[in-house]
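Issue: ligand-bound run for S-adenosyl-L-homocysteine - logging full I/O for the record.

Environment: standard queue, default settings, no custom constraints.

Inputs:
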Amino acid sequence: MSSLLHAAAAPTVDLSRVNLFGCTLAELEERMASWKLPRFRATQLFAALFARRVRSFDAMTDLSKPLRQSFAERFCLDLPRVDQCQVSRDGTRKYRYLAADGSAFEAVYLPEVGGENTNTLCISSQTGCSVGCKFCFTASIKRNRNLSAAEIVGQVVAVQRDVEPLGDGARLTNIVFMGMGEPLLNFAQVTDAMRILLHPLGMAFSSRRLTVSTSGIVPRLRELGDLARSGELPIQLAISLNASDDVTRTRIMPINKKWPLAELLDAARAYPLRPRRAITMEYVLLGGINDSDEDARRLPGLLQGLTCKLNLLPLNPHDETPFLPPTAARVASFQGILRRAGMHALVRTPRGQDIAAACGQLGEAV
Ligand code: SAH
Ligand code: SF4
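Outputs:
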């Protein structure tokens, strides 16, 4: 079952005003100072928009009318327009957003993953991806640009507005940057968006429930580690490992030529983990390519010294990859070897495959 829930309308954008959905509290404080306004006005605006979810300047009744008017002249409250929402038979919802410049991007809402009242939103950081992994549909999208912090935060706000009225525990709890794009190639906007998502006066998500996934942009990964260490962004980390040796990894992920496994895993080891937390290693299983027993046997040694869990993702097929999914027997054997070696290895059941919403399928509709 797949349904279109939202009708298309003409995109609007206001370039003369700053989009408030993309402003961190620190940025707002700077703006207030430059306009000779007291600092607390920044907190007021920030909390009104994100914590109280006020939808217009008119509704910010704790501000005087002239101040509201002046803010309305300087800021806009544009959200990326959801022009399509498809609902999978497993309850997954895929949202397509249309930006004013005509580019499109997607986010995927996954209700109740793990049965712990955990509802996850998988968001995009770019409109395509230049990293070029050979198994990922997003890599085939030519029109790639970075999303702004407002467009990233806006994906979350738009989905909250859509799912919360559904009731029955439909509330976003977790956010993962595992949609379209490589988040660490859009570092400034992604980190600003995370500052807004985590701030207690902002969207107040828990840092334990916010994950960035990367293909391994090593210098940025180290920077992200610094932000985690300082306590500013102590978020969860996922790494798309996908191979047990450099030759195979370079074949399926060309980025490995620039930052090979040893460098990537060194950076991962340096990433500061809080107690009882682990890095997620994602491993897309490609039939006959990286799914052998030898591959599985190499992983424990490769990942030595890392507190991590492995997520095994059998390839989600699509037209843009030359690879095939692994057989069920291969998946079972691969997982068995890892488990017997004492590793925490889970096979992920794909969600939303019928609406092309599963990992690596995003972008087919854009
Ligand atoms: N660019 C980042 C964030 C995207 S996450 C990254 O690559 O980490 C998308 C995840 O889906 C990655 O772990 C990737 O390895 C996985 N993936 C990509 N294509 C896939 C496919 N066809 N089937 C299953 N998983 C896939
Ligand atoms: Fe980009 Fe990630 Fe897809 Fe690789 S897996 S092409 S890095 S989105």
